[in-house]
Design a protein that fits this description.
With 254 residues, the chain is α+β, with helices and mostly antiparallel strands. 28% of the residues lie in helices and 21% in strands.
Length: 254
């Protein structure tokens, strides 16, 4: 666990295991909320709690990648990527990791492969083909770095709020960066407590290994029959993190 005081955000606490738990919970919540509330899915998951990655957002987004060695995070906000924020010249664009290496200065060599995985999940700029991230952070042992800790003016640091959220975790819950240095947690209103309890339980079990939704949990998540196509999408998403439907039915291939 590493604590840093950062301008505008105050004390941030970065912990590799807490980041993994929060990433898994965010992905599980994004998947199962579709059973009762239609929405476009905002997350993508790769790997597992030991070595994996989360893409989080739509338009504005961050990618967080972890291994047993450490964590790398890259973010893009309001379309501000390396050309706008990292000093990348248009004629120097490669469409590869060097486009955004400036977001993670002093990156430890042991995190190079983690960084490359994060770069591989970034969007690409429509006009110049650059990898699209304008801010970053890394966590390695008792060290942290990246432009998240170097900015002096938020006007020129789009994306750092999305990354700072990973240092503001409340238990396993990731706050939403709402702009203007404001963050919101999903609160336990009476109507959302059953949903959050199921998400918390699923996350805890999935961290330990493959698990199934129980019939009672499924009834809580979708008190009325959901759309079959939506169910299939949710089943496929949850299967990626080792969560299956009651009875572990076979899922048709995509």
């Amino acid at each position: 666990m590493i604590e840093r005081t950062v301008p505008y955000f105050g004390k941030l606490v970065f912990d590799r295991d807490a980041i993994v738990r929060a990433a898994l919970r965010a992905y599980v919540a994004d998947a199962v909320i579709a059973l009762s509330h239609f929405h476009g899915f905002l997350t993508m998951w790769k790997g597992d709690p030991r070595q994996g990655a989360l893409y989080n957002g739509s338009g504005d987004y961050e990618v967080v990648v972890w291994t047993e060695t450490g964590v790398v995070g890259l973010a893009c906000d309001l379309g501000c990527g390396p050309i706008e924020q990292l000093g990348l010249e248009i004629d120097a664009v490669t469409g590869g990791p060097d486009d955004v290496r400036g977001a993670v200065p002093d990156l430890p060599p042991d995190l190079e492969s983690t960084f490359l995985t994060a770069v591989g999940m970034l969007e690409v700029g429509a006009d110049h083909g650059e990898k699209h991230a304008g801010a970053g952070f890394w966590l390695y042992g008792d060290r942290v770095g990246g432009t998240l800790f170097l900015f002096e003016d938020l006007t020129y640091a789009w994306g750092v709020e999305r990354l700072a959220a990973w240092g503001m975790l409340r238990g396993d819950r990731l706050p939403r960066a709402c702009g203007g240095n404001s963050f919101e947690f999903d609160t336990d209103h009476p109507e959302t407590r059953p949903f959050n309890a199921v998400v918390d339980a699923l996350t805890s079990r999935a961290l330990l290994g493959p698990t199934e939704l129980t019939p009672d949990e499924l009834a809580t998540l979708c008190p009325t029959p959901p759309d079959p196509e939506e169910v299939l999408t949710v089943q496929r998403m949850l299967q990626k993190v080792g969560i299956t439907w009651p009875g572990s039915p076979e899922i048709p291939p995509e």
